[in-house]
Amino acid sequence: MLLFSRWKIIFILVAVLGGVMFAAPNLLTSQQAASLPTWLPHKQINLGLDLQGGSHLLLEVELDAVIRERLEVRIDDVRGALRGARIGYTGLGVSGKAITVRIRKPEQLTEALALLEAMAVPMAPSMLGGSSGKDIEISQIGNDKLSLKFTDAAIADRRRKAVEQSIEIVRRRIDETGTREPTIQRQGDDRILIQLPGVDDPDRIKRLLGKTAKMTFHLIDSSVSPREAELGRLPPGSMLMYEDQPNPEIPAEPYVVRKRVVVSGDTLVDSQPTFEQGSPVVSFRFDSQGGRKFGDVTKANIGNRLAIILDGKVISAPVIRSAIMGGSGIISGSFSVAAANDLALLLRAGALPAPLKILEERSVGPDLGADSVRAGKIAAAIGFAAVVVFIAIYYGLFGIAANVALFANMAMIAGALSLMQATLTLPGIAGIVLTIGMAVDANVLIFERIREEARSGKTPFAAVEAGYRRAYGTIMDANITTLIAAVILFGLGSGPVKGFAVTLGIGIVTSVFTAFTVTRLLIATWLRRKRPDQLPI
Q1: Quick check: 125 pLDDT over 70?
Q2: In a domain, 399, yes or no
Q3: pLDDT by residue (tens digit) across 330-366?
Q4: Which of 48, 49, 63, 223 is an S-S bond match for 425, by CB 3.0 to 4.6 Å?
């Protein structure tokens, strides 16, 4: 085990030098590292929430709103089906978690029941545990009333999709803000955990996440004035809405808006902030289907007003001057530059399927993070110095070789964390401190074995050769079992636990590598050059 071919020596040197090069940017400031040429390693270790400060948010997806929205959609379907079949009805609406409707003529109840059952959508067998079924169930209440509600399987599937879609849209919105290394993960059935290291404006993040950003286009109902509507004279099929007024001192302007959605914001493919006549506006663009529908609506309603509604507020209600056939348009209003940027971001990221409620909020200040980093550095320095001094005193020249390998090990750990862009947390620093002790553990086992072989009368070459060979199995068994534990911690843990597992796992791999390559190469080189009669160990 003391013979090294040229390619092995080159591989060891390249691995160590690579670790040093990738670790070096961490000695620079962020600005200095960013100014390095792109062909040089310039990535630094990302500090976690507990080290550089930031925001911790726990959100809840209001899933009941999803079910109610789906019921509202089905109400339109029920209304259209009954009118198409000329079945008289009354009292159509949502009651609890079901749609109820009263049929005026009892003799048409059977026909209405069959008509509503035909509206049920078949569900995939995987959603129902391998069986088949439909998403709604119809029941008869009394002699003239029908009830329509979603099945338990349909509700569970809708809830699952809503949470998954919410996580994806939250991720898009946060990524758009430029936040580095955010932690976004599902917690429980209906909650989302968000950790944002280094965020200096958490209120903006909360505003972005608190908006559903559901945009729809509706025609203005000019048959009645808003003031008459406020007095209760609201035409059927219309609703009273108010403008999105950012200044609370100015009363919001009312609008009478038709309930029917003429174009949905779901077909938006892009949105960008821009300027028109010196004022901030937001441009948007539809896909081909949405652009065609938008063009047809504007062509058929020239001279009428089109309300752009975002989360239940009218943000703009321009008059349609001409047909807009290009599939794009502009939203104007009393926008600031920041508000235009945020609105464009929300529209690009897409609408949330349900509102998000902030259950828990914690802010970690940079002072606490700085204290953690300082304490971690002190602990690592003390542990490193104690290990280096002890090994050098106890094993002499062999201990110095082990210390050189320890320096290489630390450089490789830092280089690996920088290259992987792993997030270093306070438990991660604890993992590095633990690795410092583990890094020399393999060398201690080898050196003690070499001592035993030397005491038995073997020559220095034979003692070193036997020491490495016989300690190999013990060291590998011990480190593999620890590595398995680190992998399990990473797979099942979250947040800080994963940070500890990452640094521990990297430290195990680099420790074994340096013990069996760097230290052995140094000792083998010394033996071949000095050819001592006795080992200084």
Answers
A1: no
A2: yes
A3: 877 777 888 888 888 777 777 777 788 888 887 766 6
A4: 48
CA gap 422, 175 in Å, rounded: 17
What DSSP character marks residue 319?
B
CATH number at residue 247: 3.30.1360.200
Question: Cβ-count burial of 249 within 10 angstroms (0-12 exposed, 13-18 middle, 19+ buried)?
Answer: exposed
CA distance linking residue 266 with residue 246, whole number of Å:
25
**Choice between 65 and 408, residue whose per-residue pLDDT is larger:** 408
Q: How many residues are given for the chain?
A: 537
- At 365 the pLDDT is 66
| DSSP three-state, residue 191 | strand
Exposed/middle/buried for residue 511 (C-beta within 10 Å: 0-12, 13-18, 19+): buried
Whether this prediction's pTM lies above 0.85 is answered by no
Among 162, 146, 176, 205, smallest CA distance to 65 is for 162
Compute how many other C-beta atoms are within 10 angstroms of the C-beta atom of residue 90. Answer: 9
Range of the domain at 44: 6-53+365-530
Residue that has been written with the tokens 């080159």 in this structure: 10
Cβ distance 184 to 163 under 8 Å?
A: no
Residue 421's SS3 state is: coil
Check residue 2 and give its pLDDT. Answer: 66
Q: Under DSSP, is residue 263 helix (H, G, I), strand (E, B) or coil?
A: strand
Name the DSSP class of 124: -
pLDDT greater than 80 at residue 482: yes
